[in-house]
Amino acid sequence: MNYKLLAENIVKKALKLGADEAEAYLQNGRKFRLRVRNGDVETVKQATSKGMGLTVFKEKKLGFSYTSDFSDESIEEFIKKAVQLSLVADPKPWNGLPDYKKGEIKDLGLYDPSVAEIPNEKKIKIAKEVERIALAYDKRITKSAGSSFEDDEVERVIANSKGISHTSKYSEAYFSVSVIAGSGSDMQSGRWSSHKSHFKDLNTIESVAKKAGERAVSKLGAKLVQTQAAPVVFDRYATGSFWYGILRALNGDSVYKKTTFLTEYLNKPIASDLITVIDDPTIPRHISSRPFDGEGKITSKNVLIDKGILKMFIYDSITARKAGVSVNTLTNRRNYRSRAYAGYLNIVVQNGDVDRKKIISGIKDGFYVTGLRGIGTDRPTGTYSCGSSGFWIKDGEIAFPVDGVTLGGNILEMLKNIEVVANDIDIRGSLNSPSFKISEMTIGGKK
Amino acid sequence: MKKYFKPITRRKFLKAGMAGGAVMATLPVWRLFSFSAPPSDFYVNPAVNLSKETLEKLIKVALQHGGEFAEVYVEYSVANEIVLDENKIYGAGRGVDMGVGIRVLHSEKTGYAYSDDLSFEKLKQTADVAGLIAAEKETREPVGLKSSEVPSYYLVKVSPDSIVPQDKAKLLWKANSIGREYDKRVNQVNVSFYDTNKKIIIANSEGTWVEDVQTLSRLFVRINAIEGSKRSFGYAYKGGTLGYENYDLKLAEDVTKEAARISIAMLPAEDAPAGEYPIVMAKGHCGTFFHEAIGHSLESDGIRKKTSCFWEKKGKQIASHISSLADDGTVLGARGAINVDDEGTPGQKNVLIDKGICTNFLYDRLNARLMKAELTGNGRRQSYQHYPLPRMTNTYLMAGKDDPEDIVKSVKKGMYIARIGGGNVTSVTGRFVFSVPEGYLIEDGKITKPLKGIQLMGSGPEVLKNIVMVGPDLEISGGGTCGKSGQRKPVSDGNPTLKVSKITIGGAKI
Predict the structure, then answer these.
(1) What CA–CA distance (Å, rounded) separates B442 from B417?
(2) How many whole angstroms separate alpha carbon B261 and alpha carbon B264?
(3) How many CA atoms within 13 Å lie on the side-chain side of B130?
(4) Rg for chain B (alpha carbons), in Å?
């Protein structure tokens, strides 16, 4: 079936049924999920599925509907519902489709046809191997919590009544392993994975297995430290929730409603001048890249924070129109069940020029954070508070593992107190950052 | 088979509405109805009503590769949402999900496949793919299907799907005006009403054949307050397996006042101190703690795989002798109430910790088979796209005997946790962290000033031993949505007033 044509027809039909403007978003894909534990296949799940969401505007009122039921009568009902639902809403002058110009989407190499061709035996072999190697990594590793192989193919289609119509295919290949070290009251788990658009780009089985094993074993014997203020190094793989808290506070609509602590900071310094944050979904073959965003806009790079200066808040087309700003930020979309929302696609915090080891060796007494738990940043106030684990640094060396402590502070102070940024970024997901050091934070532990 | 959901006619519904609540009685809904009414309270695409013969055929196909057990799960669900924001109805939405999931179990293996195309040919293919997991020469004969009755733990007379959005909007407007009148420092009021209406059919090779309609609804109010450079927010909600007859303007007012109270109370909040302190948890709003920090570690998958910190603990003392924990799918109208779980097992009450002793775990069918345990009614899945996992329903710490006032008085310096927000836990170690959207300092037995940025941190097994006082005032709250292995599921939880003798508090101050 030609889903692009279907989306275009649904938009036309919505106009015929009374909508002033309409946008259809459609997903159609295939999934494979395999889990292995203790050398045996545990689950195999496979399916094809599809669904679409329809947004309509009528007299500047918004209606939304979605369905996975594609029978002719159901689709007709689904379109009618969206139009009818718009009548319930209040009109808002800023409602409507985005205004951006049409353009050709770029081929970012996000579809690898060979992903569909991987024989099941090979997938099983990868999952079994990664588990076997991880279990053998160290004799203190006692159990497997399972390994997996997954692959996906999905087509995303967007069409709207301003003539936008894009389709793009994506493939994903993924494998992971999770092992447990220790026993009794001293158990630690270690997990690692590789997730790529192209099968050939996956990390080696050995490297993923080794990383999982290392992460479990290294935390054994972790203890609490005294409550104190000390320098903190965030490991590159433990920075996600920190940046997520800041990005959430950049939400343009929260700024408009004055519900974020960053409201008054546009074009002002909010971070150390070592910090530059870019949303870049145009990196070829990267899993978080997208040729068009949740509203169908052709993607490009955006600098959000430039050498510590806050350059833009993040809007979708409706919230931007409401705030009266013209921006180029990108929208995200979870799936066809929801509408596009102001967000980011692939955050890349720019590398510094110092080795991580060198940063650690310069600390007399401090905390090297490798794991974070919890939400972190409170959007209204900017108060930061997170559970964490990692290692204590003593005289420039990793001394012992730490678990069960909390990190507390104010996110703006933390951003300003970033003293050094490492050169170790590894672009592997949608939030990518090098390691960095904050001069001082509150660490909550023993009395 | 017996139908447990009788579609009410439009007229009956109006009558029920008139008798039941102020909202219905004062609003001529049929006038507001600007589009045609659905044929019944809850329209279900007839395509999902697979016949007994079709279900039996699919089960047979699924077992043709020698699988030990096969199951067909059929779903049709409708979700509705309406949102008020910035003094306007932002929009209304509706969604439909329809599909069939087929599962085959073979010793420790699970084969799963699903389809949103309900043609027999496509379903046969789906059954065959799921069955491939077995790869045996001999095949087993399924038992013929026998329909069974299900109990009823939902409080649903009027399906929320039958209520026009214009009606639900009245609740939202009421909340908006109450919120804005509450205090001039209130600067944003966001209100939503969300409901899902799900019909499921479950049939398996052991002869189980049940049907259920699961209704969930929720009115949610979020309020932001601002004063100078200080900002805060509060939220409150009412929800559960509740029909629309449970909502009215008075309820919208009460929920809103609670959200507004919190936002104003937290405006002057100071940074919480970090360190180890005793805490008092307020009744009803801290159950999430027991769900996350204890409940997840009592789910049978982690027990069987020995990845839970409690895997060897059955029959042993794991908590103080005044602590008892239950998971109970039969709490009337609660968000986690289930007539049957997503494998067709009736909902039930299971005591997991009895006076400190670990007495039971939460089982789905797979783990109960492998561990030779009784089913507990905890096999739950997000949708036809997911296979069941052992999951909680309504989880609560059971009532004790200590006077709630005495509990607060017993703390010299500590924190009063009025409600717990989001949390997460690593089940291997039981280590957790929780945020606290409303918390206060306790000084010399008295609740004094509000605190922000409190994080509770520790491990479930440790905290269980440190529960030193428990009040008689158990309350089960509105609950939330629990995520596990990428599957989201509605649950609720509860607790009486209680004291934990020491816990690590994360905060910005020392």
Answers:
(1) 10
(2) 5
(3) 34
(4) 24
Residues 6+ apart with CB under 8 A from B248: B21, B22, B23, B171
What length is written for chain B?
510
Cβ(A199)–Cβ(A144) below 8 Å:
no
Token couple for A32: 């494979």
Give domain A3-217's CATH superfamily. Answer: PmbA/TldD superfamily (3.30.2290.10)
**Per the CB < 8 Å rule, is A374 touching B232?**
no
CB B506 to CB A444 under 8 A? yes
- Per-residue burial over B48-63, b = 16 or more CB atoms within 10 Å of its CB, e = otherwise: bebeeebbbbbbbbbb
Please judge whether B231 and A380 are an interchain contact, meaning their C-beta atoms are less than 8 angstroms apart: yes
Distance CA B409, CA B278 (A): 12
pLDDT above 90: residue B240: yes
Q: pLDDT by residue (tens digit) across A4-40?
A: 999 999 999 999 999 999 999 999 999 999 999 999 9
CA–CA separation, B482 vs B172, rounded Å? 26
Domain spans of chain A, in order of start: 3-217, 222-447
Q: Give the helix/strand (H/E) hosting A6.
A: helix A3-16
Is residue B394 within 8 Å of B492, Cβ to Cβ? yes
* Chain B neighbors of A87, CB-CB under 8 A: 34-35
Name the CA dihedral angle for A95, A99, A105, A108, rounded to a multiple of 10 degrees: -60
Q: Over pLDDT 70: what percentage of chain B?
A: 92
pLDDT at B5 exceeding the cut of 50: no
CA count, 13 A, side-chain hemisphere, A171: 18
Distance CA B397, CA B420 (A): 15
The secondary element (H helix, E strand) that includes residue A418 is: strand A418-421
CA distances for B458 relative to A147, B294, B407, angstroms: 28, 12, 21
Give the tokens for residue A258: 């004055």
- Spatial contact of A153 and A39, defined as CB atoms under 8 Å apart: no
Q: What are phi and psi of A311, to 5 degrees?
A: -95, -30
Q: Which of B69, B426, B434 has the highest number of chain A CBs within 10 A, making it the mutation to test binding with A?
A: B426
Chain A nearest-CA distance from B472, in A, is 31
- Among candidates B111, B132, B455 on the partner chain, residue whose Cβ is nearest the Cβ of A386: B455
**Which chain B residues are Cβ-neighbours of A224 within 8 angstroms?**
504
Residue A30 and residue A150: Cα distance in Å, rounded? 11
The answer to whether the Cβ–Cβ distance between B109 and A42 falls below 8 Å is yes
Which of A82, A143, A258 lies nearest to residue B187, judging by beta carbons? A258
Q: Which of A180, A257, A381 sits opposite B307 (nearest CB)?
A: A180
Q: Using the beta-carbon criterion (under 8 Å), do A383 and B453 form an inter-chain contact?
A: yes
Task: Give residue B509's pLDDT.
Answer: 76
Q: Name residues whose C-beta falls within 8 Å of residue A379's C-beta, 6 or more positions apart in sequence.
A: A245, A248, A249, A254, A259, A260, A261
| Domain range B10-265, CATH architecture | 2-Layer Sandwich (3.30)
Domain ranges of chain B: 10-265, 271-506
Determine, for residues A85 and B97 on separate chains, whether the beta-carbon distance falls below 8 Å.
no
**Rounded distance between C-alpha atoms, residue A28 and residue B277, angstroms:** 52
What is the distance between the alpha carbons of residues B401 and A106, in angstroms, rounded to a whole number?
68
This prediction has a pTM of 0.89
Out of A44, A65, A337, closest to residue B111 by CB? A44
> Phi and psi (nearest 5°) for B187?
-115, -15
pLDDT for the residue numbered B353: 98
The answer, yes or no, to whether residue B391 has pLDDT greater than 60, is yes
For B111, the closest chain A residue by CA position comes to A44
CA gap B234, B266 in Å, rounded: 8
Residues of A in contact with B421 (CB under 8 A): 375
CB contact under 8 Å between A442 and B508, yes or no, is yes
